[in-house]
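Need residues for this backbone.
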């Protein structure tokens, strides 16, 4: 039996992820794009404007996937959602570390931990709801790309 879509809960999941991303950018402080422009970047680096666009989409998809888990009847959904919150917290640390502290080494450590957490979360989601897990594949790929970029900035800029 399919449960009815709870649009309020869905929007809460999406907006909370989006709000977290916005607060992370605010906590990073200053002129993010200006600082990014001064860095030597590794090959295949995208323009700075692309990051908020991609992250905005990914936060929405994360929220939808977490909503699907929350609506499941699975006995492990609470532990899966706890892992979701932990990985989201790691995600939200990246901007303040990279931009606020201007620590590309610290940000590289954060993004590696984040990538591991996102992979684990996706695996756990997959045991509960295959669609929720598949929705996070672009997030894994983008996080791996972010790890490459962050490590590259660290190596090239010290």
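Answer:
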């Amino acid at each position: 039996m399919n449960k009815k879509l709870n649009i309020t809960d869905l929007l809460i999941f999406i907006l909370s992820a989006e709000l977290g991303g916005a607060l992370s950018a605010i906590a990073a402080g200053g002129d993010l794009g200006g600082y990014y422009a001064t860095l030597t970047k590794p090959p295949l680096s995208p323009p700075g404007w692309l990051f908020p666009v991609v992250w905005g989409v990914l936060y929405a998809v994360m929220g939808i996937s977490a909503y699907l888990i929350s609506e499941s009847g699975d006995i492990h959904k609470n532990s899966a959602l706890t892992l979701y919150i932990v990985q989201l917290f790691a995600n939200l640390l990246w901007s303040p570390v990279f931009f606020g502290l201007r620590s590309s080494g610290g940000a590289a450590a954060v993004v590696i931990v984040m990538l591991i957490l996102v992979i684990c979360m996706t695996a756990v989601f997959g045991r509960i709801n295959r669609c929720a897990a598949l929705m996070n594949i672009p997030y894994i790929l983008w996080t791996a790309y972010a790890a490459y970029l962050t490590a590259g900035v660290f190596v090239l800029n010290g």
